[in-house]
Amino acid sequence: MSHDFHPTTLREYDIRGIVGSTLGEDDARAIGRGFGTRVRRNGGRKVSVGYDGRLSSPVLEAALVEGLRASGCDVARIGMGPTPMLYYSVYALDCDGGIMITGSHNPPDYNGFKMMLGSAPFFGDDIRNIGELAAAGDWESGAGGVESVDIKAQYVDRLLQNFDGLPLNIAWDNGNGAAGEILEMLAARLPGRHQLLYTKIDGTFPNHHPDPTVEANLADLKKAVADGKLDFGIAFDGDGDRIGAVDGKGRVVWGDQLLMILAEAVLAEVPGGTIIADVKASQSLFDHVAARGGVPLMWKTGHSLIKAKMKEVDSPLAGEMSGHIFFAHDYYGFDDALYAAVRLIRAVSKLGGSLTRLRDAMPEMVNTPEMRFQCSEERKFEVVREVLERLRASGAQVNETDGARVNTADGWWLLRASNTQDVLVARAEARSAAALERLMGEINAQLAASGVEPVEVGH
After folding, report:
1. Which end of the chain is more exposed for a tag (fewer CB within 10 A), N or C?
2. pLDDT of residue 210
3. For 229-302, where are the alpha helices, taking DSSP H only?
4. Fold equal for 155-360 and 366-449
5. Do residues 247 and 356 make contact, with C-beta atoms less than 8 angstroms apart?
6. Confidence tier at 454 by pLDDT (50, 70, 90)
7. How far is CA 63 from CA 25, 30, 49, 58, 60, in A?
8. What is the DSSP string of 334-370?
9. CA distance 240 to 85
10. Which residue among 71, 89, 104, 349 is the active-site one?
């Protein structure tokens, strides 16, 4: 017995597809068999499983559990909730691995699987190996047990451990995502006044798309902060592992700006700590970390890559522009938007009590959002290689951690190949609009030199 996956579903950081088209119950069963096989051959036996609020999640979860049990694994089903609650369950229930069924912030007809083996992210070659095991039918067999475990209260207790924040007044937008029930439990126990939006978990996302990195999705949150004269607002993505925020004036506080605040508070407790951010983050963040006595480290974009790097350099805190925030200081090192929100309240409390004032103090930079240009899977890495060669030849100041990040007197620009789509990703940041124009000119010239149409494609 073997199984073949649709070629588009096994991705770099997760398994993902369109339900009923590229992803179905048989795939979920095969993922269970394959992952369970890896756990067994790793000397383990117990796997926890959770799922988000998508309409297709319960059916996929049932099939996944069948596959895990058929590989001889015992399964702890933690039910519906956010992805970080599943990650937490691996530690709390002493499991050998965990699988979350989630479509994250993708459209409603998508779903997928995020995995961890032991306490390490499961990605890249690990995911390809699931496909190889399935194609060969090379699976362990057995008859594992199953139990349902409700860890919600325990998880909320853990989120609030060591809480020392002020009673701040906050609006929260759950976007009908999987964190809704936990958010209600959490907010009820936080000091201050809390206004909650869209906590009802609904996989059709009737109010707005649950992606807090797109400013249009934060309109309701801004209005709630303004109408209630609240201190600030926090938003989550569909599965609760990415955070967005707005200050008291309704300005978006982006991922790298949140990291500036969180890093300052962490560095007060971990002097000289290494703070990691991805190559899309503002230069102001790296400068701020250095000014506060920390060691700034620019690393590749991708939550699994960042988690692995954190372990390697013993970093207490890392973050991505996309709103993934990872706390290893007093926590487990995985991306948890609910925990990041609690730590944000604590950091703002420590640093004077006003997110608006902290945002005011940040240097005013003009930057582009993330721009995406169509480029085939085969060609995208080749284009980046060509760009790097031309830049080296011209003597430009380039950081090659992940694509090309070029520093000039005007600011910096970035061009990298996406790991998850057939696009090139670009971003630029400068001190003035005119300087930003010049940086954009450099990006467009490099795209043209490699024959890429400078036409942006949607997310």
Report:
1. N
2. 94
3. 255-269, 283-291
4. no
5. yes
6. confident
7. 6, 9, 11, 9, 5
8. SB-HHHHHHHHHHHHHHTTS-HHHHHHTS---EE---
9. 9
10. 104
Task: State the pLDDT at residue 370.
Answer: 87
Q: What is the pLDDT of residue 304?
A: 87
pLDDT at 380 over 60: yes
**Mean pLDDT across the stretch 31-42?**
98
Instruction: Tell me, yes or no, if 394 is annotated catalytic.
Output: no
**Under CATH, what is the fold of the domain 15-150?**
Alpha-D-Glucose-1,6-Bisphosphate; Chain A, domain 3 (3.40.120)
Q: Cβ distance 300 to 320 under 8 Å? A: no
SS3 440: helix
Residue 458 has pLDDT above 80, yes or no: no
- For residue 421, the model assigns a pLDDT of 83
The CA distance from 403 to 422, in Å, is 15
The count of other CB atoms within 10 Å of the CB of residue 374 is 15
pLDDT digits (tens, 9 = 90+) for 292-347: 999 999 999 988 899 999 999 999 999 999 999 999 999 999 999 999 999 999 99
Whether 325 and 344 have beta carbons less than 8 Å apart is answered as no
Q: 311-317 contacts: CB < 8 A, separation 24 or more?
A: 311/120, 313/274, 313/276, 314/274, 315/273, 315/274, 315/275, 315/276, 316/266, 316/270, 316/273, 316/274, 316/275, 317/259, 317/262, 317/263, 317/266, 317/273, 317/275, 317/276
Q: Are 272 and 294 in contact (CB under 8 A)?
A: yes
Angle subtended by helix axes 152-159 and 180-189, to nearest 10: 50
Residue 275, SS3 per DSSP: strand
Q: Which fold has domain 155-360?
A: Alpha-D-Glucose-1,6-Bisphosphate; Chain A, domain 3 (3.40.120)
At 193-227, the pLDDT tens digits run: 999 999 999 999 999 999 999 999 999 999 999 99
Q: Is 450 in contact with 383 (CB distance < 8 Å)?
A: yes
